[in-house]
Specification:
two-stranded antiparallel sheet; globular
Amino acid sequence: MPENILGQVLVVSMVDDERKYDHAFVKVYVEKALIPSEKLRRSHEGARVIGKAIHKCIYWEFVDVCPKLGCILP
């Protein structure tokens, strides 16, 4: 298991990238924040750190999501 796990998540869906961001994002549901002060890649409903996104869906870069482990990485 990776050492720098930011949180435990469930992958909800892939994001249809209409705005052409540089990276592909996925929508994840945050179950638990292990490093609550980590900044979100894209703000969501006023939340700017992962600790404020618990029990909400946020967007995270696909390359930093480990679906088998149910976690996100920095």
